[in-house]
Amino acid sequence: MQAIQIAKREVRIGFRNPWAYSFLALFSVFSLALLLIQAQAYMDGYTHTTGAMLTLILYLLPLMTILLGSFSITTEKEEGSWQLLSTYPLSTSSFLVGKYLGLALVLLVIISFGYGLSGVVGLLFGKSFSLSVLLFFFMFSLLLVLLFLGIAIWIGTLCQNRWQALTVGVSVWFLFILAWPTLLIAILGWLPYPFIKPAVQLLTILNPAELVRIFMVVKMGGGSIFGPEYYQWVTWLKGGLGTSMFYLFCLLWVSLMMVSAILVWERRRYRG
Predict the structure, then answer these.
(1) Residue-wise pLDDT tens digits, 209-223
(2) I need a surface site. Which of 38, 162, 220, 242 has the fewest CB within 10 A?
(3) What is the rounded distance in angstroms from the CA atom of residue 183 to the CA atom of residue 181?
(4) What residues does each domain of the chain span?
């Protein structure tokens, strides 16, 4: 299958990419910092410390994923690799899906190494994460990576070079991660009261980072921090159907990004 071959090629390229090793070192240091934080606090279920650690992960991983993913796509354009590949009977969908799968594996290795290192160091010093907490952070990180990698592929498709990808990628990260609370308050301030609750729920769906954060916090038993506007969400996500629907939405989000990227790439491939 063509996508699998592209994925294998992407893994080989990824592990020769200095950016990947820079992010590996950065995330390893970051994971050790999380270990130091949890060593100084009691962690059972959702706590203030857990929330702070989730926020730190939320700042780093989406940006790391967007940059690594979008640079991988734009590098193909800048260095002429795509022009060579396009001379073969290779479909656009196979190319982009293969890039997604390969990059997902590279990022999976990065976060696995980071958390694995923190776990080993914690065991050596008797300050390790509990298995449940470690799996919780790993799942949170994995969901962020998979969702934002779809966005990264889309950004790389739109941009012609790495400088454009850097500008657009940082802007998207800033919108979803840093500016989101301010924008949410500003938008809701203009709406009549009956529309506030539906608007909050709709806008939450449009932000993958916020949706994943809410899902994981609810699963840790901290749903009460979101207030009455999210009461139905909390009740829904606690059930088995809510969990299944959440994963279905994640799949739909990634699919939407990939289909959009494929359509744009196809248009440029045949029309210039």
Answers:
(1) 988 888 887 777 665
(2) 242
(3) 6
(4) 2-271
